[in-house]
Write a structure and sequence with these properties.
- By secondary structure, this protein is α+β, with helices and mostly antiparallel strands.
- The protein has five domains: 7-274, P-loop containing nucleotide triphosphate hydrolases (Rossmann fold, 3-Layer(aba) Sandwich), CATH 3.40.50.300; 281-362, Elongation Factor Tu (Ef-tu), domain 3; 382-452, Alpha-Beta Plaits; 461-568, Ribosomal Protein S5, domain 2; 573-661, Alpha-Beta Plaits, CATH 3.30.70.
- The protein has 16 helices and 35 strands.
- The strands form seven sheets. It has an eight-stranded antiparallel beta sheet. The protein has a seven-stranded mixed beta sheet with strand order 2-3-1-4-5-11-6, sandwiched between helices.
- Helix 6 packs across helix 7 (216-224) and helix 12 crosses helix 13 (550-567).
- The longest helix has 19 residues, at 194-212.
- The mean pLDDT is 88.
Length: 662
């Protein structure tokens, strides 16, 4: 990859079925990276390489590809759209510099669109909106634009408009800045009807007015007279990078319409990946994904600065070890190309290496940790056990270790009462796929129980305790004394452990051991689920010259948490989702009544296209197992439902009481 070419790192994100993978496939074909277009419905899309993806027709793993367009190199990651695979979106956005948000031109902004938009906001990413499927009946670019502005508070800058024939069929798209019309592929069309030309002229004037409000340079040009295309393009780029506006393009990926205009926009308006760090700076790379194949492990790394070559020695911030680069590769989905070196901005694979998510690579002795990747807490769990004869057993733990390394939103623990191994994840589909991967990817025959909700707890009020752990016997003793305060935090704040001891009352290594023990105690909770949204402060402590150790302080930390939880009554928390139910108008009453029985809160209703009503509601995950199937039966197959994660909330007292009695 030549350092002279501009480099764009971007992800394609959207609600499930908006057409992300089809768009990715067209990008690869148009750029010459592949020579045959594969279709999702045929299980032949290049970026959906896993057998489960081909069979289910959905993306479950983010796929990285590299291609070239015009004079730029594009590093593209196609991400899943289903809510259960949010970690794939999150870690992709953490290492990318921009995003293309795909909307279904008929459905508009859907629940998972809102979720991925918020994730992109969290990483301050400039983005482009591509309104897809404008060849479908009921598609409406302008309704989608209004929803982007209304739902997200964004200023939509429309850069392309559809060219429809007299029958409403999609002929192509017309660039608002240049006036060029694009048909399927990269074909330039002529003979644009006067009505479309007039619309383009009006839209260009609107664009100039919008961007001028953010760009004094363009405002000066506008006041002086005509504005050149290059000047307007540069101004749109500045406003996009500042996240003052969101460029909107449109087309129909399945029919190859509007894809070339979108690629031009990616090059023109999204950031240059090399602007975040120079190749001449010290090495700084973030490990964001581990994959396993028949030959072992590989870690994907985004280089934020510096360079990395085969044979280089690097150090990692989390694992605190140094290693030498063996095989360095560029990744194209599941194909690997050996390279000698890579520099700032590039995404590469380290073959034979399995680094934890969010670990930082840097110079030996001078590595500086980068911000880690946020992973959502699990919301459901299944009990799993290995099948087969006794001589075939024992492989499950190794397979689970590899599975959770590849997907850190999966968590494995053991039920303290039953001794069962529990696999926790983001939803029913997530766990179904995880169990399938244990069988197909890792060759372990497993049996899974029914999904159960992953409850959590939090405390209602502050509590303080002084705990002494003392053990004496024939050998070395154990002694640790800790004074601890537990305080509730806001919903979604997680767990924070702070050491405020003074004067060396608790040495740093012992304080770190205390934190490990405290977190273990919070993970155990009072039996309903892990404790979250709390602040644990180590206020004071004492040691013994011979008997104090890291083990003693870890045990003291765990015991202190148990004492504090006994003092402070806990609240049970359960995961919620936002539902969008599209139903025939005649079934609205039945649907709303059923939602009420499931402890859902209806947030609103609005008329959809034709004789349908869109019902938005917020509901606890515990009440929704099998809901999609039940909804289809209730409406004779005519209603559909989509959902997006919506955090944790307090379990009603009567429900919590029943859970604790159980």
């Amino acid at each position: 990859m030549t350092a002279l070419k501009p480099l764009r790192n971007f992800g394609i994100i959207a609600h499930v079925d908006a057409g992300k993978t089809t768009l990715s496939e067209r990008v690869l074909f148009l750029t010459g990276a592949i020579h045959k277009k594969g279709e999702v419905h045929d299980g032949a899309a290049r970026t959906d390489s896993h057998a489960i993806e081909k069979r289910k027709g959905i993306t479950i793993q983010s796929a990285a590809v590299t291609c070239q367009w015009r004079d730029a190199v594009l590093q593209l990651i196609d991400t899943p759209g289903h809510v259960d695979f949010g970690v794939e979106v999150e870690r992709a956005l953490r290492v990318l510099d921009g995003a293309v948000v795909v909307l279904d031109g008929v459905a508009g902004v859907e629940p998972q669109t809102e979720s991925v938009w918020r994730r992109a906001d969290g990483h301050a990413l400039p983005r482009i909106v591509f309104v897809n499927k404008l060849d479908r009946q009921g598609a409406d670019l302008w309704r989608c634009v209004r929803e982007v502005e209304g739902r997200f508070g964004a200023r939509a800058a429309v850069l392309a408009v559809p060219w429809l024939n007299d029958d409403g069929g999609l002929v192509g798209v017309v660039d608002v800045i240049s006036g060029r019309a694009f048909g399927p592929g990269d074909a330039t069309l002529g003979g644009v009807p006067a009505r479309v030309v007039d619309d383009v002229v009006r839209r260009r004037a609107v664009l100039v007015e919008l961007v001028s409000s953010y760009d004094d340079e363009l405002l000066g040009q506008a006041l002086a007279g005509a504005i050149g295309d290059d000047v307007l393009t540069a101004s749109v780029r500045r406003a996009t990078l500042a996240r003052a506006i969101v460029p909107v393009l449109c087309g129909a990926a399945y029919k190859d319409v509007g894809v070339s205009a979108l690629l031009d926009a990616v090059v023109a308006y999204l950031p240059d990946a090399r602007s975040r760090g120079a190749a001449s700076d010290a090495l700084s790379g973030l490990a964001f994904k581990v994959v396993y194949d028949d030959f072992g492990a590989m870690t994907l790394v985004r280089l934020f600065s510096g360079s990395l070559s085969r044979g280089d020695v690097y150090e990692t911030a989390k694992t605190k070890g140094s290693a030498r680069v063996g095989r360095l590769v560029r990744v194209f989905v599941d194909d690997l190309t050996e390279i000698e070196s890579a520099s700032a901005g590039e995404i590469v694979g380290l073959v034979g290496t399995a680094l934890p998510l969010g670990d930082t690579l840097g110079p030996v002795g001078a590595v500086r940790a980068l911000e880690a990747v946020r992973v959502d807490a699990p919301v459901v769990a299944v009990a799993i056990e290995e099948e087969g004869a006794s001589q075939e057993r024992g492989r499950l733990s190794k397979a689970l270790a590899k599975l959770t390394a590849t997907d850190p939103s999966l968590v494995v623990d053991v039920d303290q009462d039953t001794g069962q191994t529990l696999l926790r994840g983001q939803g029913e589909l997530h766990l179904e796929v995880a169990v399938e991967r244990l069988r197909s990817d890792f060759g372990v025959a497993v049996r899974a129980g029914r999904p159960q909700v992953a409850y959590q707890e939090t405390v209602r009020q502050p509590a303080s305790a002084t705990t002494v752990h003392k053990k004496q016997g024939g050998g070395p003793g154990q002694y640790a004394k800790v004074s601890v305060r537990l305080v509730p935090l806001g919903r979604g704040d997680g767990v924070r452990v702070v050491d405020v001891t003074r004067g060396g009352a608790v040495p740093a290594s012992f304080a770190q051991a205390f934190e490990r023990g405290a977190r273990a105690g919070l993970l155990r909770g009072t039996g309903l689920g892990p404790v979250t949204d709390v602040d644990v402060t180590l206020e004071d402590g004492a040691t013994h010259a011979q008997d104090s150790s890291e083990l003693a302080f870890a045990i003291a930390g765990e015991k202190a948490i148990a004492e504090l939880l006994a003092q402070s009554p806990t609240l049970a928390l359960e995961p919620y989702v936002t539902l969008t139910v599209t139903t025939p108008s005649g079934s609205v009453g039945d649907v709303v009544g059923d939602l009420a029985r499931r402890r859902a809160t209806v947030l609103g209703q609005e008329a959809g296209a034709g004789d349908v009503v869109v019902v938005r509601a917020r509901a606890p995950v515990a009440e929704l197992f099998g809901y999609a199937t039940d909804l289809r039966g209730r409406t004779k197959g005519r209603a559909t439902v989509a959902q997006a994660a919506d955090g944790m909330d307090v379990v009603p007292e009567r429900v919590a009481l029943a859970l604790r009695e159980r």
